[in-house]
DNA sequence: CTGATTGAG
DNA sequence: GATTCTCAATCAG
């Protein structure tokens, strides 16, 4: 029915302490001794521990934070580039320690590392006659690189808590807590994992300037959760036994040995288990409490929060994968959620630590707004967002070409095939008291025009074209009404990455059968310096004359100060003849006599003259 | 494939 | 359940 435990891996989970604040502290060490908070829009997204000690917390209103702690140093953290760069550097640093390449990032500030192979190797190296003077080898076949350690005791904290050990954990003497020769394999492996974790953690602090909180266990869920026991700057190992064992031939009902996994998980609120989020925990809570769980009122005013713990759920009559499946299996939900949740509740998690990926599967940029309700503003914001997005694509999807004699040449690691525009309309407030529902995002997507991959073109020109030929039409599909909308958010993203063949021939996503599909074939070895641009759905859809204008512009020799695209074709109210255009008054321009000659593609929504549709259709046919 | 939902930090 | 600005997985159609 339910799979048995598998505790053969050793997984380390890293969580950098108050990451955003640490990035600023590393940029400017003088900040380290001050209470520091990082602001995005109107909220404090995180703050350092000095600020927390003095009463601040995450996700507080800026006004509230200033009231509580007028001295607080507040820095703006809306620009995420610095965090992304720091996160990548730390991730690369940690990646150096793996042999398997299993290093997975979660957000900017968490990393899982599967060190099973290093632990296996070093376990075999143990000399049982002198365990307290062991040496941890970081590289196979190199006995010199590594560190000495005491294999008779766990490094750092443990769960369950061991007061004796913890009280002197800051001193250098280690307390022998376990004899690895006695046959408890899991214990030995966790000890090795804890020492490796400590070594990496210290390296991270000494060489990179970042402190971290670490958990060591046998899967992702447990390692992540157990790390939280000692933070910041701590590490915690979840000790065996992980399964309930009974001594002797008969179960000793008087003295059952409890699994530390259950002991550890049971006190957690059900919603604290990674993978069981707000919706799932609400549904489980409702069932266990036999009534809708109180939320806002109970939480804020009464302080009578009804907490439903993992233990409450696990011990609830009839609880198991089947009941959970019924509770969680609403239409549209992931199937098999019941077993998944049941496994998580029991600390079973067989999901692998993902291999390091060369390219993200999507990149998106967004901003939120107090009021965004007219086209000129939308246009302005679209340009800003698109500029960031194109720059992000250059940073994240471009790599230096390693071919000889190709100095400074960049090549695309992957081409996103899809461009997406999402908005979040402000909830329509009904005067008649009915609750305004659906705070959700809506989106439209379409083919990514290939001109964005042309690096010879000015970024501003690329951005302007993208806005005009792709984003404005998408915006129109999202909001066909001329007005009346008010957006609280806009997001632009690229998805559907097609990875280019890697140069060393052993690239990650290399799959011959998939690579020879038409689209991939065309994109495969395409490099920036190539003259030919892959077939472009947008440009192809344009009338011939317009295409010539674009081509003429592209072929123009750059004479020092090249005028940007929009100044050549017309600035603010420029016309892209194949698209309906927008003027600064924010009205859709409807050219009456032109209207009947236009057509919209039923597949991608592109608007074009009727005579261009045939060629456009052919493009789509080729795509399939 | 698209568009929505859920979960994560 | 929402605030910020993301990213991944997964579903129905």
From TrEMBL:
SUPFAM superfamilies the record matches: DNA/RNA polymerases
Highest rank taxon of the organism: Eukaryota
Biological processes per GO annotation: DNA repair; error-free translesion synthesis
Biased composition (Basic and acidic residues): 542-556
Gene3D superfamilies: 3.30.70.270, 3.40.1170.60, DNA polymerase, Y-family, little finger domain
Region (Disordered): 421-441, 535-566
Pfam families: IMS (PF00817)
Molecular-function GO term, any one: DNA-directed DNA polymerase activity
PANTHER family documented for this protein: DNA POLYMERASE IOTA
Name under which the protein is recorded: UmuC domain-containing protein
Provenance organism: Cudoniella acicularis
């Amino acid at each position: 029915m339910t799979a048995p435990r598998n505790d053969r891996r050793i997984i380390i989970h890293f969580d950098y302490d108050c990451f955003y604040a640490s990035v600023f502290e590393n940029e400017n060490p003088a900040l380290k001794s001050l209470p520091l908070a990082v602001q995005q829009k109107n909220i404090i997204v995180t703050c350092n521990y000095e600020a927390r000690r003095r009463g601040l917390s995450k996700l507080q209103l800026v006004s509230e934070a200033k009231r509580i702690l007028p001295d607080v140093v507040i820095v703006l953290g809306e620009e995420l580039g610095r965090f992304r760069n720091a996160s990548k550097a730390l991730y690369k640093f940690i990646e150096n320690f793996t042999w398997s390449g299993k290093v997975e990032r979660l957000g900017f500030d968490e990393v899982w590392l599967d060190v099973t192979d290093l632990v296996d190797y070093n376990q075999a190296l143990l000399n049982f006659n002198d365990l307290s003077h062991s040496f941890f080898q970081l590289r196979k076949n190199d006995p010199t690189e590594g560190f000495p350690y005491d294999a008779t005791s766990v490094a750092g904290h443990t769960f369950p808590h061991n007061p004796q050990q913890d009280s002197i954990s800051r001193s250098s003497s280690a307390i022998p807590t376990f004899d690895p020769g006695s046959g408890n394999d899991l214990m030995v492996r966790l000890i090795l994992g804890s020492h490796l974790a400590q070594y990496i953690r210290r390296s991270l602090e000494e060489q990179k300037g970042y402190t971290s909180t670490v958990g060591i266990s046998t899967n992702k869920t447990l390692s992540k959760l157990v790390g939280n026991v000692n933070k910041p700057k701590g590490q915690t190992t979840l000790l065996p036994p992980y399964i309930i064992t009974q001594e002797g031939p008969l179960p000793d009902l008087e003295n059952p040995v409890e699994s530390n996994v259950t002991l550890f998980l049971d006190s957690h609120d059900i919603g604290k288990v990674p993978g069981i989020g707000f919706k799932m925990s609400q549904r489980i809570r409702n069932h266990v409490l036999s009534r809708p769980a109180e939320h806002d009122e109970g939480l804020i005013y009464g302080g009578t929060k009804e907490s439903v713990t993992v233990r409450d759920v696990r011990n609830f009559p009839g609880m198991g994968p089947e009941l959970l499946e019924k509770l969680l299996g609403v239409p549209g939900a992931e199937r098999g959620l019941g077993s998944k949740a049941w496994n998580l509740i029991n600390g079973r998690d067989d999901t692998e630590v993902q291999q390091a990926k060369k390219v993200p599967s999507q990149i998106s940029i967004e901003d939120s707004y107090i009021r965004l309700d007219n086209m000129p503003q939308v246009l302005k914001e679209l340009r800003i967002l698109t500029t960031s997005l194109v720059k992000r694509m250059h940073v994240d999807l471009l790599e230096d070409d390693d071919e000889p004699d190709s100095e400074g040449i960049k090549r695309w690691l992957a081409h996103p095939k899809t461009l997406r525009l999402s908005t979040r309309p402000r909830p329509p407030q009904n005067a008649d008291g009915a609750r305004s529902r659906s705070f959700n995002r809506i989106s439209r997507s379409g083919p990514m025009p290939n001109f964005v991959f042309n690096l010879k073109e000015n970024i501003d020109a690329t951005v302007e074209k993208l806005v005009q030929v792709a984003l404005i039409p998408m915006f129109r599909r999202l909001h066909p009404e001329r007005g009346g909308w008010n957006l609280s958010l806009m997001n632009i993203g690229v998805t559907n990455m097609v990875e280019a063949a890697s140069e060393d021939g052993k690239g990650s996503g290399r799959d011959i059968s998939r690579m020879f599909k038409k689209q991939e074939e065309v994109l495969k070895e395409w490099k920036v310096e190539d003259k030919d641009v892959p077939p472009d759905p947008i440009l192809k859809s344009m009338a011939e004359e317009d295409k010539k204008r674009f081509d003429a512009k592209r072929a123009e020799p750059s004479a020092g100060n090249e005028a940007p695209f929009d100044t050549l074709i017309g600035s603010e109210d420029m016309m892209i003849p194949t698209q309906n255009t927008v003027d600064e008054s924010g009205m859709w321009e409807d050219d009456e006599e032109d209207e009947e000659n236009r057509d919209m593609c039923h597949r991608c929504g592109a608007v074009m003259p009727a005579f261009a549709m045939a060629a456009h259709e052919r493009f789509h046919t080729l795509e399939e």
